[in-house]
Design goal:
Blueprint lengths: L18 H11 L10 H8 L3 H13 L3 E3 L4 E3 L4 H10 L1 H17 L2 E8 L2 E8 L14 E3 L4 H8 L3 H10 L13 H14 L2 E4 L6 E9 L5 E10 L5 H20 L3
Antiparallel strand pairs: 1-2, 3-4, 3-8, 4-5, 6-7, 7-8
Helix pairs in contact: 2-3, 5-9, 6-8, 7-8
Length: 261
């Protein structure tokens, strides 16, 4: 059984904060797919600090091996993965869920995932790949705009209406494919339907040819702790066939896990 930890809201006084650490994390997260390599000037502009401060942060990261440089540009090294690995090694919940994902993948022959909502993104925490190749890129640590994935929509659907409306008000819906829902009223209704149905199915929202099926994962107290989902290619079956095949197994896994969480 996973040891339960109660979350507590803590008011932190500004005098107790280490501003340099906060800015250092901003520096690390400034590197992404669009900004894989940055100069000190580019970094300074992205995180709103002086060029000299950006250079010191970069040189510090270089000293401890988290970035590399060609003398002008800087980029993250694989050592940065140790930060995410620390979470995976210390968090009991992802480790506890993996055996259930393994059984689901073995049973359904489809890739399975455990995801959580962080801000406006869905983050894939654990994944078990199907034996056959499915190149979705949804490896642990992958972040996607929540509205583009089935798991993200299931997690968004758990919000009350006012929370959903606030979310829709602050985000821009980008069309990752020509079928991505970009109408906010349509998306709101989709999320309400998922809430009422207790599961979600999406197709072609982030990647053409990809289908996702997801259910919410709750603990014994009924609190939402994430989503279980299946990633599969659309070509193998119809939406109705895939749902009939996968949904009962997903729901059974979620119900069993609930007793452990």
């Amino acid at each position: 059984m996973v040891k339960r930890t109660e979350l507590v809201e803590v008011e932190v006084a500004k005098r107790d904060l280490i501003e340099g650490l906060i800015k250092g994390i901003d520096v690390i997260t400034a590197f992404n797919d669009e900004s894989a390599r940055l100069t000190a000037s580019e970094l300074a502009e992205k995180v709103c600090i002086s060029r000299s401060a950006a250079r010191r942060y970069l040189l510090t990261l270089l000293h401890i091996g988290l970035v590399a440089t060609d003398g002008r540009n800087f980029w993250l090294t694989p050592k940065i993965l140790n930060l995410g690995r620390s979470y995976l090694d210390s968090a009991r919940l992802p480790r506890a869920i993996v055996p259930f994902l393994q059984r689901l993948t073995l049973q359904l022959q489809e890739s399975t995932n455990y995801s959580v909502l962080e801000g406006d993104d869905v983050v894939y925490i654990s994944r078990v790949n199907a034996p056959r190749l499915l190149n979705t890129g949804f490896e642990p640590g992958t972040r996607l705009p929540a509205y583009t994935s089935t798991a993200g929509r299931v997690l968004l659907a758990a919000m009350p209406d006012e929370g959903l409306l606030a979310y829709l008000d602050r985000i821009e819906l980008i069309a990752y494919t020509h079928l991505t829902i970009t109408d906010k009223k349509q998306l709101f209704q989709e999320l309400v339907n998922i809430r009422e149905d207790g599961f979600g199915v999406t197709e072609n929202q982030y990647e053409i040819g990809l289908r996702g099926i997801s259910v919410p994962l709750k603990n014994r107290r009924g609190a939402l702790v994430g989503a279980l989902s299946i990633s599969m290619m659309i070509a193998g079956s119809s939406r109705a066939e895939a749902t009939a095949k996968c949904l009962p197994a997903l729901q059974a896994a979620a119900n069993t896990l609930m007793q452990w969480l």
